[in-house]
Amino acid sequence: METKEITQEKLFQSFCAPGIFREYTEAPFEQNGYVYATNGHIIIRTPKDLYCSQAATLEKPISSFVFDGANKSIAIDFNVSEIEALKTEPEYRVLKKSQECGTCEGFGEVTWEFEHHEREDDCPVCYGSGIAEAEHKELTGNTTFGTAYVTIYDTPLDVKLFYKLVQLNEPIALIKYTSKTQAIVFKAGQYDVGIMPVSSTGDYPVIKIL
Ligand SMILES: [Zn+2]
């Protein structure tokens, strides 16, 4: 598979949640000397001087309290493959309007095979058009996380959010833990990352981190 260089700006955008009509989740923004990006469940920041791109300034203060008083430094050790073993669900990509259908490669027809008999038929994904419709989902062939959690001091975090921290590919330290209902804050290289816990893990898989 092709490896793509992920720019810092793209990295920050991947922490945003555009389209939910909150100014601060639309795009990375700058405030009190840092650049932040958040989707409301996870927030990342880096000193402004270390951010390679431009970010809009947001005046309304919304973010720094998450990081206030972050003064611990507890190294977090974990097994990445143990976490990645929780990737048990098929991954889909959402195809944009008028994109070529990936299943039939735009031909509109696929070949069905049954005991050496072959039959051409309309592609069941694009219904013979060869073009994928808006919001059309297609399997990528990869797996992704199902519902699963990691715990820090018995406090559950969504594994998908914790994995965003893992993907920064830096040594991770816990720098703030307040309670089971407040964001837990980590440091990874030049980045600080706060993750909001969930209240319960139900019967879903859990990996204890700390
Ligand atoms: Zn098709």
TrEMBL record:
<dbReference type="InterPro" id="IPR036410">
    <property type="entry name" value="HSP_DnaJ_Cys-rich_dom_sf"/>
</dbReference>
<protein>
    <submittedName>
        <fullName>Uncharacterized protein</fullName>
    </submittedName>
</protein>
